[in-house]
Structures are given as structure tokens and as C-alpha cells.
Amino acid sequence: MSTIVQYIIVRSDLRTALNWPIGAVIAQCCHAATAVINLNSDDEETVSYLKDMDNMHKVVLEAKDEGALVKLADKLKENNVKHKMWIEQPENIPTCIAIKPYVKDNVHKYVKHLKLLKE
After folding, report:
1. Which residues have C-beta within 8 Å of that of residue 109, sequence separation ≥ 6?
2. At 33, which helix (H) or strand (E)?
3. Smallest Cα–Cα separation from 107: which of 116, 94, 98?
4. What's residue 19's pLDDT?
5. What's the structural domain count of the chain?
6. Closest C-alpha among 90, 91, 77, 96 to residue 32
7. Radius of gyration of the chain (CA)
8. Distances in whole angstroms, Cα of residue 55 to Cα of each of 4, 16, 51, 115
9. How many CB atoms lie within 10 A of CB 37?
């Protein structure tokens, strides 16, 4: 069986340049992941992903800044990859993208240039 994975891409500059606490950054990822699962709750891969809840596979990657995040969102949209860009309110700041669960081989090509998020 093919691995179903959910990619979450968060801006690394939230912690560095903008000095957000780690908890606030994690909350952004949680918001986006929850939203994209809800928006795609009837999707076959999402349903399959949630059925095996104890073995969910998520990969958290970093985009260097807002420009990189928006560029990725545009590429995902162009290729009909379902995702949710989380925009923190009331500041109206794009903070992260969660891609709905996909078979890894079908979506990895869009994020392979990104690095794993690190401290």
C-alpha cells in the first residue's frame, strides 16, 4: 500500500525575523492542518488517512518567508493540489500551508525542494 502523507509548510522567518514564540508557530500549523482536513473530509485519501489515525504521517517543512509561501501556494493551485494557506487574523499574515493527505508519490515533487523545519 502506498504511504499517504500530509505536508505542512510553515514560514521559518516567523521564529527568526518576527520573533514568534514556538507555541504560536505550532498553533499556525495546527490551524492549517485542521482546516484542510475539514475542507476535504469526503476525499478518499483523507478518509483513508484518518481511518488509520494511530499511523498518520505528517512532514513539517519550512518556507523561508511570505514570498516563498505564496509562491508555493500558487504552484499548488496551478497543479490542482488541494491545500489551505492559513492567514493569521487580524494581522492578515500568511503563516503556513497544509496540503490535504495525498499518496506521497503524487505530491512530493511539489515540496521536495524544501527543508525539514528545524529549531
Report:
1. none
2. helix 22-39
3. 98
4. 94
5. 1
6. 96
7. 14
8. 10, 32, 9, 23
9. 18
Q: Which structural domain, as residue segments, surrounds residue 74?
A: 4-116
Query: What distance, in Å, lies between the first and last C-alpha atoms of the chain?
Result: 33
Q: The C-alpha cell of 18 is what?
A: 518576527
The rounded distance, in Å, linking the Cα atoms of 20 and 113 is: 25
Report yes or no on whether pTM surpasses 0.85. Answer: yes
How do beta strands 115-116 and 58-63 pair? antiparallel
Per the document, the length of the chain is 119
Average confidence (pLDDT) over 39-53: 95
> What region does 72 belong to: left with phi over 0, alpha with psi -120 to 50, or beta?
alpha
Domain of residue 73, CATH code:
3.40.1490.10
* Contact between 49 and 100 (Cβ < 8 Å): no
